[in-house]
Amino acid sequence: MQNPSLIQIKHSQNRQEYTAQVVVTAGQMRDIEARIFAAGMPVAALMEKVAGLIALRVQQLFPLSNNLCRVGILVGPGHNGGDALVVARELHFRGYAVWIYSPFSKLKELTAQHLQYAQSLGISCYENIEQLPNCDFLIDGLFGFGLERPLTDAIASTINQFNEWQQPIISIDIPSGLHTDTGEVLGTAIRATYTVCLGLWKLGLLQDHALEYVGKAELIDFDIPLADIEAVLGNTPRIRRITRKTALSTLPLPRPAVTHKYKEGHLLLICGSRRYAGGAILTALGARASGVGMLSVAVPESLKYLLVSHLPEALIIGCPETETGAILELTLPENTNLSAFSAIACGPGLTREATPIVQQVIESDRTLVLDADGLNILAQLYTIPTLQKRQAITVLTPHTGEFHRLFSNVSDAKHDRITAVREAAAQSGAVVLLKGARTAIANSQGNIWINPESTPALARGGSGDVLTGLLGGLLAQATKKQIPIEDIVATAAWWHSQAGILAAQERTALGVDAHTLTQYLMPSVKYEV
Ligand SMILES: NC(=O)C1=CN([C@@H]2O[C@H](COP(=O)(O)OP(=O)(O)OC[C@H]3O[C@@H](n4cnc5c(N)ncnc54)[C@H](OP(=O)(O)O)[C@@H]3O)[C@@H](O)[C@H]2O)[C@@H](O)CC1
Ligand SMILES: Nc1ncnc2c1ncn2[C@@H]1O[C@H](COP(=O)(O)OP(=O)(O)O)[C@@H](O)[C@H]1O
Ligand SMILES: [K+]
């Protein structure tokens, strides 16, 4: 029989991994919460449990022993405010000097009770921000996932004042003022130093425009029964965060002992022009780091020896070129057609002169990654009708500008990137990777991965080319495996970011040029697998 404690450990590890992946909207969280309450959990007991965990975490982040003992607690009218009041009470009993700022006259019943009890303990409570003394840090319990209307008037200007103060702020669940799903600022919002997200990750915390408000985000698990999560989200949640574990699980490792280079994937890259020679090198170096068995790179003839000098192991195909140095015609080695490759990645540095080449690869029956000029040309050819003719898998990797050119009729990605990428994938049938600080990937069935960790060090010319090569190489190695394509795309996005993070740690955010990035791809996973 298995040792019960081992089963427990396994269970808790699985739970941790599961909750690290799941992402919910406010509506889903409300439905999950309703099931817990309907099953008999008293609302007050859940608040007590959750806020107790928040109070413990606050004590770790701001220990009394560091003389960080003066805390201001910002209390809103709903249960986010109730959580904050329980934290206030706990910190008061632990020896912190606590001041409550509670500007609302109408509070939910449970919140009002906690306020009354806190006052009965002698904790000072103020309605005006000016009365609040200078604190070491603040806890923001103004609004959580119940906020739907924009903040205006007095509360909006108070939040602006808090933001001007220098104290660190811990936001409970979500920085007050952010929309729980879109991450948009509803009037104004708290700029948090830390956000302690409760129970399950809220979608808004993973939207690009929320990042400057969220600070360092972490999840506080309060034992929501998995059955309740699954009842609301289904067996496989539609929106998930990429984790180290999910990413590493799709890597083509271990490599079988008996294999040969063509069994480990043959990627064809089509990239570069006389004007953009570097893009071809970076794409190929990204592909090299994927471990792909064979790498062929089609470039204009005049770039051939430049590529050979950087990638002696690759087969460089020099193609006839236009007067301005773009690929004129794809000349594959004798007896080879596009179907000979496991996958094709096309676009970086091509220029728009290469339209016939892009048309040719779209017509092929191979898994195809389109990036950069490959995407601009696709947009000119009309994205949806052109892709509808494809039988094979297509992966598009636009940044926001390319995305708008490709999908001018879908929702605005600036407003809600997740909805936009989901619509784009549904309309086009492609797997779409929308680049950004929090890159999002969708397939046509509405499954979404979000890359939750990255670095602005990657906001630099050429880093997208590296991703294209890496992704192409991983796809080429996965053709015979039963891994969903979007999972491999997610792995590429995660790996690319992890390399950026490692490089930035060692070299600062200024030291991560795209060539350096390619050299950090291997070290960023080598101790993991
Ligand atoms: N789910 C869980 O499992 C758990 C949830 N928990 C906690 O509950 C939180 C959700 O609580 P919640 O539903 O009470 O909503 P919350 O975010 O506090 O605010 C809504 C209040 O704001 C008001 N209001 C709205 N807009 C406004 C405006 N512009 N200006 C002024 N007022 C405005 C609105 O008033 P009304 O719309 O009625 O006028 C309402 O009173 C959640 O984030 C977490 O912290 C934990 O305790 C336990 C586990
Ligand atoms: N602020 C940021 N934080 C994290 N990653 C970023 C940020 N800005 C850009 N990136 C990443 O850098 C890459 C840039 O790609 P792209 O815009 O195509 O650049 P290029 O065409 O110059 O190669 C993408 O993978 C994107 O997700
Ligand atoms: K909050």
Automatic annotation (TrEMBL):
Q: Which residues bind (6S)-NADPHX?
A: 79-83, 144-150, 173, 349, 399, 465
Ranges for domain YjeF N-terminal: 29-230
User: What is catalysed by this protein?
Assistant: (6S)-NADHX + ADP = AMP + phosphate + NADH + H(+); (6S)-NADPHX + ADP = AMP + phosphate + NADPH + H(+); (6R)-NADHX = (6S)-NADHX; (6R)-NADPHX = (6S)-NADPHX
Q: What are the entry keywords?
A: ATP-binding, Isomerase, Lyase, Metal-binding, Multifunctional enzyme, NAD, NADP, Nucleotide-binding, Potassium
Q: Which positions in this protein are listed as binding K(+)?
A: 80, 140, 176
Family of this protein: Belongs to the NnrD/CARKD family. In the C-terminal section; belongs to the NnrD/CARKD family.
Q: Which PANTHER family match?
A: ATP-DEPENDENT (S)-NAD(P)H-HYDRATE DEHYDRATASE, ATP-DEPENDENT (S)-NAD(P)H-HYDRATE DEHYDRATASE FAMILY MEMBER
Q: Please identify the protein, giving its name as recorded.
A: Bifunctional NAD(P)H-hydrate repair enzyme
Q: State the organism named in the record.
A: Nostoc spongiaeforme FACHB-130
Q: Which gene encodes it?
A: nnrE
